[in-house]
Every structure is written in structure tokens, then in C-alpha cells.
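Task card 7
Instruction: Convert sequence to C-alpha cells.
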Amino acid sequence: MSEKSKIRIYVPQNLAPDLEIALPPEQSHYLCNVMRLENGKNIRCFNDKDGEFSALIVGANKKQTILRILSLERLPQKSPDIWLVFAPLKKDRTDFLIEKAVELGVNKIIPVFTRFGITDKIRSDRVKAQLVEAVEQCERFDVPALDEISDLSSLLKNWPQSRKLFFMDETRTGQPAVDAFNAYKNQPAALLIGPEGGFAPEEAALLRRLPFVCPVSLGPRILRAETAATAALAVWQAVAGDWKE
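Output:
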């Protein structure tokens, strides 16, 4: 491929040179109708098992496009072991949060219902499609896992206690984020972001009693939930993630 294609799609099937792969209707529609690609055009395809390959369109059809896999371009890379737990927000803000979580390397997303949360439902099919799209855009290989939504008490009851849970504490009684993340930087971690109305007093009290939970402060200003998630993830990546590499 003489020039690196800007079009990059996630293909969960096994990838290897000379294989021919049929794409599902959604991807075929995107390539042929949205991007208007024809036979003979190059794209990139990837997954987290085999890596990223150049590929040639050999059968352009809006219902089923055929790719011929060419050469391996990049070996797969794993994202850091960081989870994001969040209370779903209004639609556009949840969309923003999901996109930025993917770009910032989260490898599992866990929606949680809290007392002041605005919904106890999330459209898993829609979020999964957003995850794939964000992965394609940001050049990572792995699609984050998505858990079903659960209430906060159930989540904490079943939490793997070897994984440190940092909750963003807007009362500013927690450790500064840099200090907290640095203290546990060699340990599996997760970040907990509350709803727009914050955690209820009994929820915050429960969190502070648990030995695997660490309250964290993100500074003197009150942040929107999606801002808090983005800021916390950026600090964690800088201190304990793969931004150091």
C-alpha cells in the first residue's frame, strides 16, 4: 500500500495475509455508500489478536463487501488495565464520555445506577457500536468490554477487592488524584464517577467504609461528570498508565 489509508475498520475474524473476508451489512454500507469506495481501494483492518493489516476491496457491494487481507502493518498492543464506572448521563454527555474513555485507554466500562442518577437503563447495542467506532478512530486495537448496568450497592458487594476503586469525591476530603494514583500505580484500578447530582450521603459513607475504595479529589472546582471522568483518566494515564511509554 503506497499511502496509509485513513479508513480503518475493526474485524473480529482471524486476520492473515491472503485471506478473503466478507464484511457484515453495516460495514459494507459504510464503505460503499458513505465512503463511496470501490473495488481496488485500500483500507486498514485490525483486531486485538492479530494486529493491523492493509486490505484490498475485491468485492464492493452495499450488502456484503469482500476484503483481501494483504500485509501486516502493526502488531497488536494492549491497553492499560483501567476500568471506568459511571452513572449514565443525558444522551449527548454519555456519548462524549464513552468516546473519551476509549481514547484514554479504558479497557472496561461499567454503567452504574446511583440514588441521584437520571436513568437505570442504557442501550448496550448503541454503546457497543460507539465503542467500536471510537476504537477505529483513535488507532487502538482492543474494544473495551461493556458490563450491564447494576446498582451501586450490588456492584460494590461483588467488587474484586484486589482492584483499587478510586471514587471522585467532590467534597475534597480525598487525596489529590496524582498522589492517590501514584500510591497504587502498580495495582489494577478503576475510577468511579458519580451522576450530575453527586453521590448521596449514604453512598459516599458506604464507599469510605470499604477497604478497597480510595476517595480522590480533582481540585477546587466542581466538574461535570463527563469532565471529571476525562480529567481523572488523563491524570491516571500520566501517572500509572501508558503515557509514560
